[in-house]
Amino acid sequence: MEIYEQTQGRNYILAVDGGGTKTIFLVADCRGNVITRLEAGPLNLNGQKKEAVRDMLLDAAGRLKQRGFEPAHCMQAGIGTAGISNPESAGLLKEIFRSAGFICEINMFGDHETALAAAFPSCEGCILIAGTGSVCMGMMESEGNKKLYRAGGYGHLIDDGGSAYFIGKEILSAAVQSEDCREKKTILTQMIFKKLHLSCVEEMIRWVYDEKRTKNEIAALAVLCGDAAGERDKTACEILDRSADELAKLAKAVLCHMPGKHDLVFSGSVLLKNEHVCRKTQELLLEEFPDIHIKLAKTESAEGTLRLMMKRKAGAK
């Protein structure tokens, strides 16, 4: 991403990518050239209380103002995040932006849409995302019409297989089952205790069921599984294998609808930072789609938000 010299007092476009752990704000000029980048806390309303999201956005707006970008000078804003299919969540985000002084048009996009647009300039292809949550999305043109295919992404309570939350929950489950001898011993138990500053399973249970506990905190434990697998802990390796299996299922469900479109991008912390899950997922997909071309995401989803906004702007002319 090339960042151009900042010019204060000018009108600008704001592209936002709100994730489960952080939010990226990109300020661009009217031609889509990025001027400045800002990083803030999580935005996803599925895992954050609205007060925390409001505080984060108001703080970010204040930081942008300090850099010379007044909310009133924003010509157009785009927000990419999970859960915007819920009208209440989308309405709340727009309300928060309005309260921060943004009076411009506000476009809403799903996080899977922006990630796909970031990975493919044509906005056609397939992307598998495994961060705090998980989803696979494919877009292709058929007979002059764009067709969208999606699998997963229905939230941590009933879905999100293979995600960081999935791995974190599996780690905690393995710890209690190891403790009462239902399953084999694992070094994951002591790793959890060390990370959370706990001394026993009973304390861990109280930590898990604390009413203030968030899904992001559970997902943050996923990194322990990679560390334990590196120590050849069998339980950790099995958890990562299950994660890869779930992610491969998501991708297969979409790829089977896209003949001749077997270009796939891996995105999200689980696939980009956990070598075991990345490798195993690729192996499983190659078994069914030997011609598949897989690459790792190198472009931030916020750039996908900006690209979608520019395409929409161009189409409106």
How would you describe this protein?
A hairpin with a 5-residue loop joins strand 2 (23-28) and strand 3 (34-40). This protein has a domain at 12-114 and 300-316: Nucleotidyltransferase, domain 5 (2-Layer Sandwich). The protein is built from twelve helices and ten strands. Helix content is 45%, strand content 21%. It has helices at 50-66, 87-99, 111-119, 164-179, 188-196, 201-208, 215-219, 222-230, 234-255, 269-273, 275-288, 301-316; strands at 12-18, 23-28, 34-40, 74-81, 105-110, 125-130, 134-142, 145-152, 263-267, 293-296. Helix 3 (111-119) crosses helix 12 (301-316) and helix 8 packs across helix 9. The strands form two sheets. It has a five-stranded mixed beta sheet, with helices on both faces. It has a five-stranded mixed beta sheet with strand order 8-7-6-9-10, with helices on both faces. The protein starts with 11 loop residues before the first strand and ends with a helix. The longest helix is centred in the C-terminal third of the chain and has 22 residues, at 234-255. The model is unreliable at 3-8 (pLDDT under 50). It has 317 residues and is α/β, with parallel strands linked by helices.
